Amino acid sequence: MKRIVCFFIIILILCTAAVMVCPKETNAASAADAQQIGDPPAADPEPAQAVTSQPKLMVEKYTLDRDYLEAGESATVKVTIRNTSSSQHVKNIKLSYWEESAEILPAGTGAAYYKQIAKNSSCTWSFRVTATTTAQSKPHPATITMEYEDSNGNAISASDRIILQVRQPVRLTYEEPSLPVRVTQGDTPSLSIKLMNLGKSAIYNALLKFEMPGLSSGGSVLVGTIPPGESQTGTTNFRVESEPLGQVSGTLLLSYEDEYGEHYEKEIPLSTTIEEEKRSCNPQKS
């Protein structure tokens, strides 16, 4: 009898333990199922989009229709703009010219419009410019601005610099040289000439050379540098020779250089009359 009672007690204990364990497993399974139902599956990563570079415009070359622009004069500038992109055209292009000192002015607005430049292609913009009379004699940087759109309509801007050389004109004038109308054999007359720089840049190495039959000088006369708006006088002495007599003509060669080393020459005519030296006769005493 005791064995039977013990057997039933063991069975009761086992059943109670089974009832306590099963709800926990069911709850855990339910929580796992709920988590799987509530969370959506992770999405696949989107492929990275390819980055397209912007097309670039640049000044490929430029030319002036002469070696330099002289103050007060006009010239034609040609600027070649290249689209360096190998895959895109550009459109709605506005080109503008601007010079900081305002001494080289464009004709009109200094702007131009182009509808399109194809990929790996170029266009040439031609326009007139004028240097003011007071423009400084030096290289002048100017800016070419390029505003345009790529093939998708995105606005882009770029700029490049060009250099325009300006020179002031050389304006050297002079007063007529003061050589006596008549000279006598054996005399040492002097000649002077006043040189005036009316330009806006300096004159260098002003030199006087004389070629006059019957008159000999001590050589060339170096006047030197003449600043803008100033004057210098060159003077030399001649010695009248015995031959020839009468009217003689010659030249004064005036040479000088500008600030760029360019050489200039002017021939100035000279003339005078050489008279025979008069000797006094003293009577001899007997």
TrEMBL record:
Keywords: Signal
InterPro entries tied to this protein: Ig-like_fold
Gene3D superfamilies named in the record: Immunoglobulins (2.60.40.10)
Signal peptide: 1-28
UniProt-recorded name of the protein: CARDB domain-containing protein
Species, as recorded: Syntrophaceticus schinkii
